[in-house]
Predict the 3D structure of the following.
Amino acid sequence: MKDKRDNRDFFEKVFAVVSLIPYGKVTSYGAIARYLGSGSSARTVGWAMNMAHSLEDAVPAHRVVNRNGLLTGKHHFETPETMEKLLASEGVVVVNDAIQNFQQHYWDPNLSLVI
DNA sequence: GCGTTGACGAGGA
DNA sequence: GTCCTCGCCAACG
């Protein structure tokens, strides 16, 4: 059913899911990977975000953090404070690069979306 | 074509 | 609870 192009689908899906993250919500790389059916390929999700810089699509990567709620990828933004600033703008409290009440802002595509 | 790296996660000790 | 190891997929040298 699916050809080798399936691999590329993974990338496109990542951007799609990230773009679907509601305002003021965050999710984890693993959650996205799991939603795509890869589960353990969380690293590839991060890699996709890296490629997102090359794309002109507005990918709210600042809403994607690791499972610890740490802004691990903030350094990949224009400035390290961009990510924190954007999250703060959306009502997400970030202290020491860590999201406070992470679970409260956590948004799981598997629970909110339907495949 | 091979080896290493990378914005991660889960499991085992 | 922490620390270490493996897996996963794509890009880069």
The two ends of chain A are 17 Å apart (CA to CA).
